[in-house]
């Protein structure tokens, strides 16, 4: 029923094999914490309450009941974390039963990653070429059916289109983006990203009604919007492109819910002199962070354009930076690498699971730290030689080594049978951020660079993106830093380099000059997927 052309495939098992690979490899990445949910309803999230033994304790002078005496109170933070599911595989397969294009694209995606798996060590086998041929063939069949609609959108011929555009077209574009990620991160993915924007702004696009908020179509639409916004937000940090504002199409009541995703309430316990701060955090599993973090990352990129526009003064600019820093501080989860000398049961869910939940929360903290690093370098003009950058880079790499290298060495779980690798894709952006800010004059420079390459080797066959391209970009950044450092190293004057005088003058202002981030990291032509 699906397509008569399937019989042309040389291997009769290719179809089921590609779909099976999609089920066991790609699906967990798009829905990484699925096996830890106690509720089968894909709308209801799991709730985890963490009482971290390493919680900060601060002293406060608080006046109680108009008493003239002031008391010392310690603050203890209790974090209630809700983890929201990603794209449910069974829902998508069910949805694709009535849409051969989506089914073909799923097969194409599975085949492409099977091709990558068979070329993991840099040597192509006969099976590798077969999977590449299958991927291209499935892709050809899907594009043949969807191309007329795409051409109408590109040429803005909506008046000639009968009927409406549905969510099926949007998820098809998302699958095409994922395919291009695996296809050496072909720049076509940015074309499909912009085409998705055009689709969403089309008067022919039909959004599921509010009364259908729990419907399958609505859940797929929600994932697509989050996915597109996520890819755009991450990619813009390296290429500094304009914002397409995908999440403007979310339902109003959903946006109100999101604004409350991080809330804090304080309760004073007069008997024990403790202030208990209750913090509610909503995390999206496949993103590896709170969606509010995506908003901050986009805000940082948008504000970076103002450094040269002069449409804002430095006082307001600095206030906006301080506000973003405060928002980042409020997102801190207080999750640290477990001390094996103590109990590792830092976090428990409703089934008592600890290890995977702890690793997931730690990966979310890595992304928050990376956003703080992005803020410091992109907006506040910090450099790899600054102490705050050095400590952030070291902290990020320490956690990355634990999550990716140490855990994978100790794990007996394979890619296909568990979630040990499922959140790796969410860590590509932090690796890029930290690796870009390794100081060439730091004694740990070479060891951190080697660690970066080790991590990328581990990620190559366990993520959706093309890590080889990202690795090459990072190596080029290192080369640029090494080249500049070698030219000024031989020109010291009283312990200062030639650039130090200019740097000290520029530090007195925040705007109007090219900073270290813009000089070494940003490149408008990257068009890379940092996920």
TrEMBL record:
<dbReference type="GO" id="GO:0045944">
    <property type="term" value="P:positive regulation of transcription by RNA polymerase II"/>
</dbReference>
<dbReference type="GO" id="GO:0003700">
    <property type="term" value="F:DNA-binding transcription factor activity"/>
</dbReference>
<protein>
    <submittedName>
        <fullName>Uncharacterized protein</fullName>
    </submittedName>
</protein>
<dbReference type="GO" id="GO:0005634">
    <property type="term" value="C:nucleus"/>
</dbReference>
<dbReference type="InterPro" id="IPR021858">
    <property type="entry name" value="Fun_TF"/>
</dbReference>
<keyword id="KW-0539">Nucleus</keyword>
<dbReference type="Pfam" id="PF11951">
    <property type="entry name" value="Fungal_trans_2"/>
</dbReference>
<dbReference type="GO" id="GO:0000976">
    <property type="term" value="F:transcription cis-regulatory region binding"/>
</dbReference>
């Amino acid at each position: 029923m699906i397509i008569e052309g399937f019989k042309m495939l040389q291997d009769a098992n290719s179809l089921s094999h590609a779909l099976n690979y999609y089920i066991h490899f790609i699906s967990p990445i798009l829905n990484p914490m699925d096996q830890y949910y106690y509720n089968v309803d894909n709308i209801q999230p799991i709730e985890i309450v963490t009482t971290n033994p390493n919680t900060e304790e601060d002293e406060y002078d608080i006046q109680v009941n108009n008493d003239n005496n002031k008391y010392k109170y310690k603050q203890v933070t209790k974090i209630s974390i809700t983890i929201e599911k990603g794209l449910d595989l069974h829902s998508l397969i069910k949805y694709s039963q009535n849409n051969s294009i989506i089914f073909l694209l799923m097969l194409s995606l599975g085949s492409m990653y099977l091709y990558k798996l068979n070329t993991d060590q840099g040597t192509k086998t006969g099976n590798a070429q077969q999977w590449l041929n299958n991927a291209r063939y499935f892709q050809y069949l899907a594009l043949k059916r969807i191309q007329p609609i795409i051409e109408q959108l590109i040429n803005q011929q909506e008046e000639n289109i009968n009927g409406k555009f549905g969510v099926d077209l949007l998820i098809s574009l998302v699958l095409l983006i994922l395919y291009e990620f695996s296809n050496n991160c072909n720049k076509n993915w940015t074309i499909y990203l912009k085409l998705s924007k055009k689709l969403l702004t089309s008067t022919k696009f039909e959004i599921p009604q509010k009364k259908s908020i729990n419907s399958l179509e609505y859940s797929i639409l929600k994932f697509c919007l989050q996915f597109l916004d996520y890819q755009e937000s991450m990619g813009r940090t390296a290429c500094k492109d304009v914002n397409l504002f995908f999440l403007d199409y979310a339902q109003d009541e959903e946006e109100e819910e999101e604004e409350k995703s991080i809330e804090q309430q304080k309760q004073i316990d007069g008997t024990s002199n403790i202030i208990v701060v209750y913090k509610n955090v909503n995390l999206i599993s496949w993103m590896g962070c709170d969606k509010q973090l995506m908003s901050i990352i986009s805000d940082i990129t948008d504000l970076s354009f103002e450094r040269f526009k002069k449409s804002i003064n430095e006082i307001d600019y600095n206030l906006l930076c301080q506000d973003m820093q405060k928002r980042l501080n409020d997102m801190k989860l207080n999750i640290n690498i477990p001390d094996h000398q103590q109990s590792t049961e830092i976090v428990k869910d409703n089934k008592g699971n600890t290890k995977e939940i702890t690793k997931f929360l730690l990966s979310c903290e890595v992304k928050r730290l990376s956003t703080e690093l992005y803020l410091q370098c992109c907006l506040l003009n910090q450099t790899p030689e600054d102490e705050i950058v050095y400590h952030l880079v070291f902290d990020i790499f320490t956690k990355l080594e634990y999550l990716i290298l140490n855990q994978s060495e100790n794990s007996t779980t394979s890619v296909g049978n568990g979630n040990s690798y499922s959140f790796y894709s969410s860590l590509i952006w932090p690796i890029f951020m930290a690796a870009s800010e390794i100081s060439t004059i730091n004694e740990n420079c070479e060891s951190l660079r080697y660690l970066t390459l080790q991590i990328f080797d581990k990620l190559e066959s366990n993520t959706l993106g093309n890590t080889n391209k990202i690795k090459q970009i990072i190596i080029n950044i290192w080369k640029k830093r090494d080249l500049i450092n070698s030219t000024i190293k031989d020109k010291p004057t009283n312990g200062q380099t030639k650039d130090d005088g200019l740097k000290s003058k520029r530090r007195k202002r925040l705007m109007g000059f090219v900073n270290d981030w813009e000089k070494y990291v940003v490149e408008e032509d990257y068009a890379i997927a940092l996920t």
